[in-house]
Write a structure and sequence with these properties.
Blueprint lengths: L1 H14 L4 H12 L3 H20 L2 H7 L1 H28 L13 H13 L2 H15 L5 H22 L10 H24 L1
Length: about 200
């Protein structure tokens, strides 16, 4: 039970920071578009990555620096593009930013969240490398991983479905412009931090 609780706490502490993935889940929750599927995709992706980490994949990733470089630059490219898209949406404002407006198809939405998840080296670092390393310090690394997976599931569904509580704030187009600009800042900040590594 101690390993499970430690995994739950560690997983939650790593995932709570606002990043590219979380910003996208928040936006989908506010727009009420594909929320369940986006949250499920994020939780399942985290589960796969956490299991890779606690079963020893961290050593393989560390031994393949070329793989890490490819992921890093693919992530930078995607984050710059997505950030520019958010800045453009903030600049234009208007109907496109209303929560009930027509949104992207499920396929396109899942493609974006897949890129934000699987091309983001920070996600790999947190789930595979860091959680994998921490899990080795506990009596049962697999149970530690299950605790971290539970934290991920709880967080993503709370973020996605809890976002609707902010709907009154985001009924104003200006709030959507601020959110889009904030998402752009987050995306470009992460891209810059990846470039600087």
């Amino acid at each position: 039970m101690m390993s499970y609780a430690a995994g739950l706490g560690t997983g939650l502490s790593l995932i709570v920071a606002i990043g590219a993935q979380n910003a996208f889940v928040l936006k989908q929750g506010l727009m009420r578009q594909h929320v369940f599927r986006v949250c499920l995709f994020c939780a399942l992706s985290d589960a796969v990555l956490i299991l890779l980490g606690v079963t020893g994949m961290a050593r393989i990733v560390a031994a393949a620096p070329l793989l890490a470089d490819v992921m890093r630059w693919a992530g930078v490219t995607f984050l710059i593009w997505y950030g520019a898209r958010s800045f453009r949406a903030a600049w234009q404002g208007g109907e496109a930013l209303r929560p009930q407006g027509g949104g992207a198809t499920l396929g396109r939405t899942l493609a974006v969240i897949a890129a934000l998840t699987w091309l983001n080296p920070h996600v790999w670092l947190d789930t595979v490398v860091l959680l994998g390393a921490v899990s080795a310090q506990w009596p049962d690394p697999l149970v530690f991983g299950l605790g971290a997976i539970t934290g991920s599931v709880l967080f993503f569904f709370a973020l996605g479905f809890g976002a609707r509580l902010l709907a009154p704030v985001f009924a104003r187009p200006r709030a959507w412009q601020v959110l889009e600009a904030g998402i752009g800042v987050v995306m470009w900040s992460i891209a810059l931090s990846l470039i600087a590594e």
